[in-house]
């Protein structure tokens, strides 16, 4: 509750871009959700992550799976035996197990627009590839649905502001699935840090480290997509290109048109850091990196180091290292440095260690080391399921109470913006000056051109 109060009291910057009239009119649900009623959910995108979310929502007694939507027929019909054999062989752990037992058979849709027209659905969970998030979220808001949207919220920075504006013109609840917001260890650590436990904060650091050496996602040629996979619909608002196996399924994360590792992993870590440091947006961004090692089809950098500088004098550094392994810190996934202490954290817990006196100084330590261990992690849950469950439970509660979720749309947009700013700085090789109110660069028109893109017809927001 303390964290929710903090988010509610935070100033929300509303300047931005005007949302165009959408092709959908406003449709309201015929089902009025009360405190003791089930929330009738539609799930748009039920592949790898979508199936994980589907399973976690199904664990909640007040969630009814009312509809499923996917462009791949075996996923839609929940039949793993019909999945492409090549997909099963190469991406075994990324292909959902399926076979769920639904108390009531959900409606099945191959087009999300028809699902959104269904007045019996109260809310939707969106777990499509990133480049679809903005369009479907805005369409869902205009259709009168509450929304749980998986991270990263957007594929471009401009989309995020349009989503915020669409929600502001509605009464819909929109939550963003940035896991650490629902995690007990991070919730407790935020309270410690905001209470001044480590003194004046100077630097926050985190990294994504994953060894793809030597072949990465491979080198492949265009080919015909599987007959039961709607490739044109998968591309959606992005420019048409022939199907390529190392784009979909799953490997779109290494293609800049559809996602990035800054968005995929960076959003988690950067959200946690800016939340802990109580910052909204950086003033300056600079970056170094490139596709230095991996000779594969991916068009994102395999090595990157980005610095975010804030008007308050704080700095965040974030690194991508996809050709090596190991960790950066003595504990956890991120580091926060203050004048009185240093904090290390991940979803499994945190450690806060006192600083020691340095040159010309003479004083005793400020406090004894503080530690917290997440019981869910100690019981062997090595995934982020407990964090996501926290967000899901909060979302369903907010659908009924109409309260603000733990990770509302504005917060999700601001955190996702960090990933976009990082990618733009890497692309331009410039030290960029960012105007967070108007969401434009003050010193680079080249960078401003990368804030959005022209959607492929007929898609438009």
From TrEMBL:
It comes from the Bacteria. Residues 40-177 form the Gfo/Idh/MocA-like oxidoreductase N-terminal domain. SUPFAM superfamilies: Glyceraldehyde-3-phosphate dehydrogenase-like, C-terminal domain (SSF55347), NAD(P)-binding Rossmann-fold domains (SSF51735). Residues 263-417 form the Gfo/Idh/MocA-like oxidoreductase C-terminal domain. GO terms for molecular function: nucleotide binding. Pfam families: GFO_IDH_MocA, GFO_IDH_MocA_C. InterPro entries: Gfo/Idh/MocA-like_OxRdtase_C, Gfo/Idh/MocA-like_OxRdtase_N, Gfo/Idh/MocA_oxidrdct_glycsds, NAD(P)-bd_dom_sf. Gene3D superfamilies: Dihydrodipicolinate Reductase, domain 2, NAD(P)-binding Rossmann-like Domain. This is Gfo/Idh/MocA family oxidoreductase.
């Amino acid at each position: 509750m303390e964290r929710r109060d903090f988010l509610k009291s935070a100033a929300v910057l509303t300047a931005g871009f005007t949302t165009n009239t959408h092709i959908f009119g406003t449709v309201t649900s015929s089902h009025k959700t009360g405190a003791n009623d089930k929330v009738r959910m539609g799930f748009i995108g039920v592949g790898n992550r979508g199936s994980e979310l589907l399973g976690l929502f199904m664990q909640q007694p007040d969630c009814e799976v009312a509809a499923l939507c996917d462009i791949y027929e075996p996923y839609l019909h929940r039949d793993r035996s019909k999945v492409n054999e090549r997909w099963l062989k190469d991406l075994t752990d990324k292909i959902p197990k399926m076979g769920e037992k639904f108390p009531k058979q959900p409606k099945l849709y191959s087009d999300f627009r028809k699902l959104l027209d269904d007045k019996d659905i109260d809310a939707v969970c969106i777990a499509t590839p990133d480049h679809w998030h903005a369009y479907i979220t805005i369409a869902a808001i205009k259709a009168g649905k509450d929304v749980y949207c998986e991270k990263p919220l957007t594929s471009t920075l401009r989309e995020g502001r349009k989503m915020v504006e669409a929600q502001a013109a509605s009464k819909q609840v929109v939550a963003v699935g940035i896991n650490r917001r629902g995690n007990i260890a991070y919730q407790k650590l935020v309270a410690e840090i905001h209470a001044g436990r480590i003194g004046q904060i100077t630097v926050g650091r985190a990294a994504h480290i994953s060894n793809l050496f030597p072949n990465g996602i491979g080198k492949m040629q265009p080919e015909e997509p599987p007959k039961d996979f709607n490739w044109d619909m998968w591309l959606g608002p992005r420019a048409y290109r022939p199907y390529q196996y190392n784009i979909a399924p799953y490997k779109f994360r290494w293609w800049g048109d559809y996602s990035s590792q800054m968005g995929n992993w960076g959003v988690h870590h950067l959200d946690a850091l800016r939340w802990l440091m109580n910052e909204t947006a950086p003033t300056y961004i600079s970056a170094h990196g490139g596709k230095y090692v991996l000779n594969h089809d991916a068009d994102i950098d395999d090595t990157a180091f980005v610095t975010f500088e804030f008007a308050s004098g704080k700095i965040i550094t974030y690194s991508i290292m996809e050709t090596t392994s190991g960790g950066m810190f003595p504990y956890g996934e991120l580091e926060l440095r203050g004048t009185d202490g240093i904090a290390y954290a991940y979803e499994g817990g945190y450690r806060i260690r006192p600083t020691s006196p340095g040159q010309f100084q003479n004083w005793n330590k400020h406090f004894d080391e503080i530690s917290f261990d997440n019981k869910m992690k100690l019981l062997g849950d090595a995934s982020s399921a407990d964090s996501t469950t926290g967000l899901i439970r909060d979302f369903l509660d907010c659908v009924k109470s109409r309260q603000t979720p733990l990770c509302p749309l504005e917060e999700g947009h601001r955190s996702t913006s960090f990933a976009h700013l990082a990618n733009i700085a890497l692309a331009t090789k410039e030290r960029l000056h960012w105007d967070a109110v108007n969401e434009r660069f003050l010193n680079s028109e080249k960078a401003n051109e990368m804030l959005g893109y022209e959607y492929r017809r007929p898609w438009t927001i």
